Amino acid sequence: MEGDSTTINITETPKERKGKAPLLAAPPASSNIKPVVQKAPKGGYKRGLAIFDVVLRLAGIAAALGAAIAMGSTDQTLPFFTQFFQFKAEFDDLPAFTFFVIANAITAAYLALTIPISIVCIVRPHLVAPRVVLIFLDTVMVALTTAAAGGAASIVYLAHNGNSDANWPAICQQFNDFCQEVSGAVVASFLTVVVLMLLVVFSAFAL
Prior knowledge:
The chain is mainly alpha-helical. Helices cover 61% and strands 6% of the residues. It contains six helices and two strands; from the N terminus they run H-H-E-E-H-H-H-H. The protein has helices at residues 14-19, 44-72, 95-113, 115-123, 129-161, 176-206, and strands at residues 75-81, 86-90. The protein has a two-stranded antiparallel sheet with strand order 1-2. The longest helix has 33 residues, at 129-161. It is elongated, with a radius of gyration of 40 Å. The termini are far apart. The mean pLDDT is 79.
């Protein structure tokens, strides 16, 4: 009959389905992942400076203690004397030398007591407070040791050269051994000053 209609179902084959796939595929989700770069932990140079700090403190102890002992044990008695006078030179005859011995002994004790703080800086190199304390105290010790070494150096200079304007004769021609020992003590004290200044500089770099 003319009014009847026929319905025909057409199924798609797998090849036809592939042909209708979108031309631009969405990028995979993994493309948005950024690589994570792990940075090496900082503080290696700070630990190295802390180790060098301990070595310098040990060297400063040796220099300051050597200066104090050398000056404190210095005396010389000339082989000739009169009925009323005996010619003898000791470090405690001059207040500058006495101050020198006390100041260098204090410096040596201070450097020994601050070694544990330096060890703390080795274990935990990022700590700031111990280094600030060391910078402050080291600066104080620089001033103390420099004052002692400078005062003693002026006396040693007068002992070697005298002062013609003040009519002070040089005594090192007679007290040769005494002058050599105090001169060596003054040199050791100035080495201690150099060590302390290096400690201040390295602590400042480590901050």
